[in-house]
C-alpha cells in the first residue's frame, strides 16, 4: 500500500496530514498531557485518532476540531470512540474556543498541528490564553526553537515574545520524520505552553506589543533606531533606556513591553 494511504485514508497534503504512527512517541505525548477524567480537553486536528484514542481512554469525553470532512465524519461514527467525542467539523483558525469552556473549566488543548498553518494557529489560540490551562503541540522543531528562544539569538522573534509574554514554554520531546506516515520533510518537536494566571511582565495592551514586534522583527537586521522609526524617535527610545544601535533580537521581553506601554500611554 502507498505510504500516502494510512488506515484506508489518502493523506491530504493541503491539510498538512502527517499521521503519527510511532507508538513510543504517542505514549510520551499522552504521558506529558496526563489527561484526567472530567478535564476539558480539546484536540485540534484529530485525524485518524492516534492521540485521540488514548486520551479518550484516560479522560472520557473530549472535543475535537477537524477540518477534513471525511475524517470528521469517520470520527463521529467511530464504533468505539464516537460516543466519547464532540466532533466540530471546521477550521481551527476560525474556531471560537471560548465556546467550549464549561462550568468554568479551563481548556486543555493539544494537537499534532498541520505545519502549514501552525504559526497563525498559535497566534489565534494565544488569544484565548485566559481560558486555557495548558496546550501541548507537535510542531516543526524550528517553530519550537523560536518559541523557547532566548534574546540575542537568531531564533528570537515575534513568536518568541508573543508566546513567552503569556505562557511558560517547555519543550517536551523531539520527534524524527520516521514517526509519521507520510514522513514530513522536517524534524518535529512537542512543546507545552502554560498560560500565566498573572503575567510576569508589566504590559497594558498585548495588541500594541504585537504591533511593536512586527515593526521591530520585520527588519530584524536594522538597528532599532531605524526599524522603530515609524513608532518612536531617537529621544523617545533613549528615554526608555534603549540603546539606539541595538537590534530587535537584543531587546528583552520587558523592553518590548516598555515600548508598547509608552505608545499606549502617549496614544501613539
Ligand atoms: N492528530 C493526527 C495524528 O497525530 O496522527 C493528525 C495530525 S495531522 C499533522 C493534522 C490534522 O489537522 C489532520 O487531521 C488535518 O486534517 C487537520 N487539519 C488541517 N488543517 C486544519 C484546520 N485548519 N483546522 C482543523 N484541523 C485541521
UniProtKB/TrEMBL annotation:
The keyword Hydrolase does not apply. The keyword Transmembrane helix does not apply. It holds the Pfam family RrnaAD. InterPro entries: KsgA/Erm (IPR001737), rRNA_Ade_diMease-like_C (IPR023165), rRNA_Ade_Mease_Trfase_CS (IPR020596), rRNA_Ade_methylase_Trfase_N (IPR020598), rRNA_adenine_dimethylase (IPR011530), SAM-dependent_MTases_sf (IPR029063). Residues 25-197 form the Ribosomal RNA adenine methylase transferase N-terminal domain. Keywords: Cytoplasm, Methyltransferase, RNA-binding, rRNA processing, S-adenosyl-L-methionine, Transferase. Gene3D superfamilies: Ribosomal RNA adenine dimethylase-like, domain 2, Vaccinia Virus protein VP39. It catalyses: adenosine(1518)/adenosine(1519) in 16S rRNA + 4 S-adenosyl-L-methionine = N(6)-dimethyladenosine(1518)/N(6)-dimethyladenosine(1519) in 16S rRNA + 4 S-adenosyl-L-homocysteine + 4 H(+). S-adenosyl-L-methionine binds at residues 18, 20, 45, 66, 91, 112. It is found in: Cytoplasm. GO terms for molecular function: 16S rRNA (adenine(1518)-N(6)/adenine(1519)-N(6))-dimethyltransferase activity; RNA binding. It is an enzyme of class 2 (transferase). It comes from the Bacteria. GO terms for cellular component: cytosol. Specifically dimethylates two adjacent adenosines (A1518 and A1519) in the loop of a conserved hairpin near the 3'-end of 16S rRNA in the 30S particle. May play a critical role in biogenesis of 30S subunits. This is Ribosomal RNA small subunit methyltransferase A.
Amino acid at each position: 500500500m502507498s505510504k500516502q494511504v494510512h488506515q484506508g485514508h489518502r493523506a491530504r497534503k493541503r491539510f498538512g496530514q502527517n499521521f503519527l504512527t510511532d507508538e513510543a512517541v504517542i505514549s510520551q505525548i499522552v504521558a506529558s498531557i496526563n489527561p484526567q477524567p472530567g478535564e476539558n480537553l480539546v484536540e485540534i486536528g484529530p485525524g485518524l485518532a492516534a492521540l485521540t484514542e488514548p486520551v479518550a481512554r484516560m479522560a472520557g469525553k473530549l472535543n475535537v476540531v477537524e477540518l477534513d470532512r471525511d475524517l470528521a465524519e469517520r470520527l463521529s461514527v467511530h464504533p468505539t470512540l464516537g460516543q466519547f467525542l464532540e466532533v466540530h467539523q471546521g477550521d481551527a483558525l476560525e474556531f471560537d474556543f471560548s465556546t467550549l469552556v464549561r462550568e468554568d473549566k479551563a481548556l486543555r488543548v493539544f494537537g499534532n498541528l498541520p505545519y502549514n498553518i501552525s504559526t497563525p494557529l498559535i497566534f489565534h489560540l494565544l488569544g484565548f490564553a485566559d481560558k486555557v490551562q495548558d496546550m501541548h503541540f507537535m510542531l516543526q522543531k524550528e517553530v519550537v526553537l523560536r518559541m523557547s528562544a532566548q534574546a540575542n539569538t537568531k531564533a528570537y522573534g515575534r513568536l518568541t515574545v508573543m508566546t513567552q509574554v503569556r505562557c511558560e514554554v517547555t519543550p517536551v520531546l523531539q520527534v524524527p520524520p520516521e514517526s509519521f506516515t507520510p514522513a514530513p520533510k522536517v524534524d518535529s518537536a512537542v512543546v507545552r505552553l502554560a498560560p500565566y494566571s498573572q503575567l510576569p511582565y508589566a504590559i497594558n495592551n498585548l495588541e500594541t506589543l504585537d504591533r511593536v514586534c512586527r515593526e521591530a522583527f520585520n527588519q530584524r537586521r536594522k538597528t532599532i533606531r531605524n526599524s522603530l522609526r515609524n513608532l518612536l524617535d531617537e529621544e523617545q527610545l533613549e528615554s526608555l533606556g534603549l540603546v539606539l544601535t541595538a537590534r530587535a533580537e537584543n531587546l528583552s521581553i520587558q523592553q518590548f513591553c516598555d515600548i508598547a506601554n509608552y505608545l499606549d500611554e502617549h496614544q501613539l
